[in-house]
Amino acid sequence: MPKCPPFITNSILKALNNCLYPIPSKFLSLSMLSNFSALAIPSTKTIEIEPQNHPQHRHASDRENGIEHDPPISDTIFKTGAKMGSYKLGDSTFYSLINNYADLGDFKSLEKVLDRMRCEKRVVVEKCFIVIFKAYGKAHLPEKAVDLFDRMAYEFECKRTVKSFNSVLNVIIQEDLFYRALEFYNHVIGAKGKLEKAISLLDRMVSSKCVPNVVTYGTVINGLVKQGRALDGARVLASMEERGYHVNEYVYSAVISGLFKEGKSQEAMQLFKEMSVKKCELNTIVYSIVIDGLCRDGKPDEAVEVLSEMTNNGCKPNAYTYSSLMKGFFEAGNGHKAIEVWKDMAKHNCTQNEVCYSVLIHGLSKDEKVKDAMMVWAQMLGKGCKPDVVAYGSMINGLSNAGLVEDALQLYNEMLCQEPDSQPDVVIYNILLNALCKQSSVSRAIDLLNSMLDRGCDPDLVTCIIFLRALREKLDPPQDGGEFLDGLVVRLLKRQRVLGAAKIVEVMLQKILPPKPSTWARVVEDLCKPKKVQAAIQKCWNILYC
After folding, report:
1. Residues 6+ apart with CB under 8 A from 434
2. CB contact at 8 A, 174 and 137
């Protein structure tokens, strides 16, 4: 390499001292100067340096006066470098800065470098981002890595490959954030109907010698199952085994659960039997999923056989296992067997939690055994179990169907004093509204509807049908309900609940009850606000091209 004349070296060192602040002083060592292309090229031009105060004093006074400096990159360095291959002037210096700042964990300076490169329309290669991802991993900042991965494509126009994807995925996994890793994978691969790329991605990873691990396979399978493609998930599982990976019980349980939910109980049971043949651990989670799936498929008696096998193999059923079995018997019309399961729970010292009580109360209420349901309710409260929305809804529905509307309203008032996650939903409101309208208490039903609106719960199609029927059958003279629904739309618009109002308008059009012109104008005006239109257009573009 040509030797640099002393006067050029001195000039550049002065330029570095004056222009590279606040780059750490370790970057200014002679060993690091070889990274800058200006020192490797002979030059006859001397860099002119304007006389100025000592940099430390100058920057100290600037900070006192509130003056912020430009990004810590010297224009002089890039102007004195020569073109190197296909890169633009000074690209190698930017890459050196990225490496150095990443080693130091100086992310603020890294952002300044990236911002400068973007403004100058320089190419940021994928390996630079991978360096930054690794730095984020060392600093335990997985969300920063995910954010930068998203910015790679639209902000820096850098093509993302399996290398950068795996780099970010590893950062997340190193923090033991497996659910976040799953979300990240679904966001990149599984979202918006693009799961067909998942299997091909795994093949590309293998061909690129970037070997996917069990978590990667599990993420793909989970994404396929969530999109209703459990059979594809089973194929990926088989491919996983062919490549020598040990499939654990969690991956199996995800696929089995998905197959049951899609109504493919035979395939699910076949996979369950394969687990036994391959000596894969059958734990409580796997057994509970199979029992729940069989009960969903209307086969609670077969589920009992699986329960017997479960206990014989030393697995202890939990509350989820028993509640699934109880629900299966109630839905099959065998309430007495469901109660036997409840008693069997107590014999085996299995804790009866809120979910179990909710299932029992719902089943008894559905079988019109309201007194028994009330006894279970009292027992539930006596044991300190807090009823959830399902339990409240089941009890309110049972009381309403038995004609005990006042008792149902009393439970509703109790709900209003509960935590935010136990407040009445539209289903409970519809139960009470229907009960009041059946008793010809339309005015009380309207009062309850007003309370529903005040508490931020929007009416739905069922709500509209309840009032339309009541206005036709319970009033003299009968009304078509058009004016009532029109007023409901206006009240929702006044509360800035545009989507709720739009749903009511949709019902009105279905029932051939067109809104008033003034109501139309308000709905269209609120729906067509610039931000909402822009969001809708962006959503359409995402669906079409993303």
Report:
1. 400, 466
2. yes
CA dist list (Å): 187 to 31, 183, 519: 43, 6, 39
Write down the pTM of the prediction. Answer: 0.57
Q: Give dist(CA 329, CA 320) in Å, integer.
A: 14
Task: Output the six-digit token pair for 399.
Answer: 């009381």
3-state per-residue secondary structure call for 243-306: CCCCCCHHHHHHHHHHHHHCCCHHHHHHHHHHHHHCCCCCCHHHHHHHHHHHHHCCCHHHHHHH
Distance CA 323, CA 256 (A): 19
pLDDT tens column, 373-418: 999 999 999 988 888 898 899 999 999 998 899 999 999 999 998 8
Q: Judge contact between 265 and 303, C-beta under 8 A.
A: no
DSSP designation for 3:
P
Q: Calculate the alpha carbon distances from 48 to 40, 59, 219 in Å.
A: 19, 21, 59
Rounded Cα distance, 466 and 459, in Å: 11
Give the integer Cα–Cα distance in Å for 324 and 303: 9
Non-local CB neighbours of 222 within 8 Å, separated by 6+ positions: 182, 186, 233, 254
Q: Which residues contact 41 (CB under 8 A, 6 or more apart)?
A: 2, 80, 81, 82
Tokens standing for 280?
């894969």
b/e map 280-290, b = 16+ CB within 10 Å: bebeebbbbbb
pLDDT of 348-378, one tens digit each?
888 888 889 999 999 998 888 999 999 999 9
Distance CA 71, CA 486 (A): 59
> How far is residue 170's CA from residue 176's CA, in Å, rounded to a whole number?
10
CB 111 within 8 A of CB 97: no
- 49, 15 contact by CB (below 8 A): yes
CA-nearest of 350, 361, 426, 425 to 394 is 361
In terms of Cβ atoms closer than 10 Å to its own Cβ (0-12, 13-18, 19+), residue 180 is middle
DSSP 386: P
* Helix locations, 282-425, DSSP H: 284-296, 300-312, 319-331, 335-347, 354-366, 370-382, 389-401, 405-416
Residue type, 56: Q
Cα distances (angstroms) measured from residue 315 to each of 105, 281, 282, 309, 310: 49, 11, 8, 9, 5
Query: Which residue, chain included where needed, has tokens 């091909």?
Result: 200
Chain centroid, CA 415 distance in Å: 29
For the CA atoms of 385, 421, 446, 377, the dihedral, rounded to the nearest 10 degrees, stands at -10
Cβ(34)–Cβ(74) under 8 Å? no
Q: Which pair of structure tokens corresponds to residue 62?
A: 């600037």
State both tokens at 188: 């990149």
Q: Which of 220, 282, 270 minimizes the C-alpha distance to 245?
A: 220
**CA nearest to 20, candidates 63, 66, 78, 65:** 78
What would the pLDDT profile of 456-488 be if each residue is shown by its tens digit? 899 999 999 999 999 989 888 888 889 999 999
Give the C-alpha separation, 249 to 261, whole Å. 18
The answer to whether residues 502 and 527 touch, using CB atoms and an 8 Å cutoff, is yes
